[in-house]
Amino acid sequence: MTANDTERGELEQCSLEELFGDVQLMLNRARKHQREINSLISGTGADQWWGIEQSESDDGFSYSLVIKCQQLRELKPVAADLCNNVVHALDQLVGALTRANGNDNSERLQFPWKADDAEFEKALAKLSKWISNHAVECIRAARAECALWIPHAHLAKDISNSGKHWELVPSSATVPAVIIHRPGGPPEIFNLPPKAIEEKLYYEFYTGPHPLGNSRVTAAIGLRFTGISEEPVSPDSVFSSAFRYAETVFRTVCDSPQVRELAVNAMA
Q1: Is the CB of residue 163 less than 8 Å from the CB of residue 81?
Q2: What is the pLDDT of residue 29?
């Protein structure tokens, strides 16, 4: 590689970062929301949505899993914000490509978030004269690469809309088991009935003559979004699919020599 090649590569990279900076900011913000959700789901944050209560009687000690409904509700707007950022990251991408091609934003163009192939192609075709044929081909190729994840990725659009227009997508929770981690010994697992916390907000999982002491307690949990697909779907499935799709589109566009040339000329 010559010095000129190196200089050209650096120029292209700087131009891409300047042109698509807002796209990366939106994706970074979405990742921040994901960390917030992961903290809530895993119970590592200060506001975990479940807790353990101990009671003592003449018969011994009992421990109950308690569901904190407010913390569980707070998951919904964070999920909507996460999906909103992912969706609008690709809208920002379309806007940046439109500007780079010398067009204004009077049309308020949006990324074609369409799960149906025919509807996607129809919406994508309308972008061609605004963002260039090369960019359109990049988006089409990225979508084909993510074909397996498209159904769940597009649920992010529904969740995003739920935070703006009608009502937040409802979520449900299950706790299959509570695990007691005793010092120096194997974990002890208490399996819970499938609908244990659907029927009440607490569930007594342990009674015995001795307290658990300083044993660490964790819960195996399951969260689902309902009402956006035929079957309830896990947040992780939606989020990971949406991130994979958005980041693949972004990477494919940025890797295109034609788009890189476009970025250099636009930022000159």
Answers
A1: yes
A2: 97
